[in-house]
UniProtKB/TrEMBL annotation:
This is Isochorismatase family protein. Transmembrane segments: none annotated. Keywords: Hydrolase. The keyword Cell cycle does not apply. GO terms for molecular function: hydrolase activity. It comes from the Bacteria. The lineage of its organism: Bacteria, Pseudomonadati, Pseudomonadota, Gammaproteobacteria, Pseudomonadales. Residues 15-190 form the Isochorismatase-like domain.
């Protein structure tokens, strides 16, 4: 039996949520959490430029810890997260995507950009009723953020080429599952066209 999955009505105004495009996830020479993702970064550069031109809201996220009690069970499960110390250069957004003044960098401890943060409130204050969720990694923080965005009643759009994962099979499987249950997965060009 197949689910009756439908495309969402486009949002009136999207917020761009760039998930964990920090050096610790984009530079495999410096971090075991990273993957070779130059094409993903380039796709995000294109989306970022489009949002900035329209004056639409942009939010970055990063994972950074300054206490051993933060997300302790998550860090027990995935010890590589411990390199993401708050004072480390690994938690800074990749310089190719340098945030501008007025573009918040949300510091999170868990997978979802919404859990334990005020992101939903900030998106609503910016007048957005939808989110484009991009970044790293598809099977982890991108997925968790997209699911939570829907649970906050936002219309969720995922630009396919603007997401990536260390595991190619997990990337494909999670995009497929997200597209059935939680979000619309589209090409970057189709997402740009929706901005009007």
């Amino acid at each position: 039996m197949t689910l009756d999955s439908r495309s969402l009505t486009p949002a009136q105004r999207y917020a761009l949520v760039l998930v964990d495009l920090a050096v610790g996830f984009t530079d495999p020479q410096r971090s075991p959490l990273a993957s070779s993702c130059d094409a993903v970064v380039a796709a995000n550069v294109k989306l970022l430029e489009a949002f900035r031109q329209r004056g639409w809201p942009v939010f970055f996220t990063t994972v950074a810890y300054d206490s051993p009690v933060q997300a302790r069970v998550f860090r027990e499960k995935l010890p590589a997260l411990n390199i993401l110390k708050a004072d480390s250069s690994l938690v800074r957004i990749d310089p190719r995507l340098e945030p501008r003044v007025g573009e918040p960098v949300i510091v999170k401890f868990w997978a979802s950009a919404f859990f334990g943060t005020n992101l939903a409130e900030l998106i609503r204050q910016a007048g957005a009723d939808g989110v484009m969720v991009t970044g790293l990694t598809t099977s982890g923080c991108v997925r968790a953020t997209a699911v939570d965005a829907l649970q906050h009643d936002f219309r969720v759009l995922i630009p396919e080429q603007a997401t990536g994962d260390r595991d190619a099979q997990a990337h494909v499987a999670n995009l497929r599952d997200l597209s059935i249950k939680y979000a619309d997965v589209r090409s970057v060009e189709d997402c740009l066209a929706l901005l009007g």
